[in-house]
Amino acid sequence: MAGLELLSDQGYRVDGRRAGELRKIQARMGVFAQADGSAYIEQGNTKALAVVYGPHEIRGSRARALPDRALVNCQYSSATFSTGERKRRPHGDRKSCEMGLQLRQTFEAAILTQLHPRSQIDIYVQVLQADGGTYAACVNAATLAVLDAGIPMRDFVCACSAGFVDGTALADLSHVEEAAGGPQLALALLPASGQIALLEMDARLHEDHLERVLEAAAQAARDVHTLLDRVVRQHRAELRGGHRLVLGAGFPAADPAHLHVGERHGLHHGGGAVCGRRPCPGFCPGLRRPPQEVGGSASGLA
Amino acid sequence: MASVTLSEAEKVYIVHGVQGHTDILVGVKAEMGTPKLEKPNEGYLEFFVDCSASATPEFEGRGGDDLGTEIANTLYRIFNNKSSVDLKTLCISPREHCWVLYVDVLLLECGGNLFDAISIAVKAALFNTRIPRVRVLEDEEGSKDIELSDDPYDCIRLSVENVPCIVTLCKIGYRHVVDATLQEEACSLASLLVSVTSKGVVTCMRKVGKGSLDPESIFEMMETGKRVGKVLHASLQSVVHKEESLGPKRQKVGFLG
């Protein structure tokens, strides 16, 4: 392609990264007090915010309620000032609706919806600045927000994009690289099991190259997982240290000996009751296996 | 002519409400457009307010459109006078090109006193806006070309001295309060929105709410609004200038901080 060289002879990309290198990721959980769970992530210049409400009663038509599991409802919205050229409508257009459906599909695979029958979980994702990899940033932010809300999940969901230029697979594409028109792969992975929650590819790619691109995306997703895991542990450590006591509306002040993560229970707690609304029962009735150590079990956070 | 969209001058300003957590994000984008027929020597501002679903699930889909339109219309009204913003600085060539400033407000968290917070954020964002300097070159055939200055830091700033801020006064019982939280707003049946400039000039006034106000209290509330407005402008001015003086290495207020 004439003009912009996406991969130089020395192996450097337009922004100076190597082929498999991710952009700088910074994230924070619990950015909003009012929502059940929230998180903010920056992947390079892409900034995404995710807010989770739920599980709560089905809003609107009761007929939509599923008798055996929770309904996951996602909305993707990107701010009008997020792209170089101003967007007219933040959501409601085809692309946003499609992204919302993809997010829903991704999270239905990860959230333990059987634990919350006849209820609804809302995930609202807002892109504040788009510089490529918006789907991946949204998925990563939404994972953190769902964790912040204490909704039990099978595993983290980590996403990353990948492309293919000059025989090399590139991980974590920026806007310039996406706009160049080469093949793009978006992958959402459940890292512990290596299962793929969502796989999407645009443009033409020879099947011989597919495995390499897929592996590049999967490795990048695993790297993202390491970072997200660190963010969650740090957030929990902050709460444990009492620096940020997050109290839900109407919830009595917590006894420090039983300080829960944001008054909610965290990744592994599968309590039959709606999380965050009642005190921890001290055991996990919903899970068939013992709670996994995510730096300490739910009831033992003393 | 082909539409030229130059959006280098986007600026994002985050204003965190101190109490009750009202979170607003305002972005200003400057694009080239054609001046309005009745005002050929001026540019103009366009407002858009997006009430995001993260504030409350009721705003999902089109749920937030009503409130968004109401706030946008209020912003149009308070800026609809000659003195708020000098629109002549936005003109590039009369009747042909001008700058259109798209002011986009994103409401992330709603903790009461929306109008005030939004107007403060809009004023701060306009202060922060940098519009690139352009020149119109005319060649022999008479066709015009627009040339952008080579220096990326060569830009024009808007004077926001006369940009008004809204002060909402909520009537609770027989008294009135400013900067009401959600709970206080729930107790108030009627409120008065007063748009005040830094000099204490009232540019727009509106009564909202299902209750009624008697004329005495309206005058009282307006006086309070003017007084509070002047103080508000002074403190906003000092905060914004202090932040500006820190230069490019300043700590950006954001979610990560």
UniProtKB/TrEMBL annotation, chain A:
Family annotation (Pfam families): RNase_PH (PF01138), RNase_PH_C (PF03725)
Principal location class: cytoplasm
Q: Name one GO molecular function term.
A: RNA binding
The entry's localization annotation reads: Cytoplasm; Nucleus, Nucleolus; Nucleus, Nucleoplasm
Domain (Exoribonuclease phosphorolytic) spans 21-152, 155-219
Give the top-rank taxon of the lineage listed in the UniProt record for this protein.
Answer: Eukaryota
Q: Which UniProt keywords apply?
A: Acetylation, Cytoplasm, Exosome, Nucleus, RNA-binding, rRNA processing
Q: Which GO terms describe its biological process?
A: RNA catabolic process; rRNA processing
State the SUPFAM superfamilies in the record: Ribonuclease PH domain 2-like, Ribosomal protein S5 domain 2-like
Query: What's one GO-annotated cellular component?
Result: cytoplasm
Per the record, the similarity remark reads:
Belongs to the RNase PH family.
User: Subunit structure, per the record?
Assistant: Component of the RNA exosome core complex (Exo-9), composed of EXOSC1, EXOSC2, EXOSC3, EXOSC4, EXOSC5, EXOSC6, EXOSC7, EXOSC8 and EXOSC9; within the complex interacts with EXOSC2, EXOSC7 and EXOSC9. The catalytically inactive RNA exosome core complex (Exo-9) associates with the catalytic subunit EXOSC10/RRP6. Exo-9 may associate with DIS3 to form the nucleolar exosome complex, or DIS3L to form the cytoplasmic exosome complex.
Which PANTHER family does this chain map to?
Answer: EXOSOME COMPLEX COMPONENT, EXOSOME COMPLEX COMPONENT RRP41
Q: What is this protein called?
A: Exosome complex component RRP41
Q: Give the source species.
A: Homo sapiens
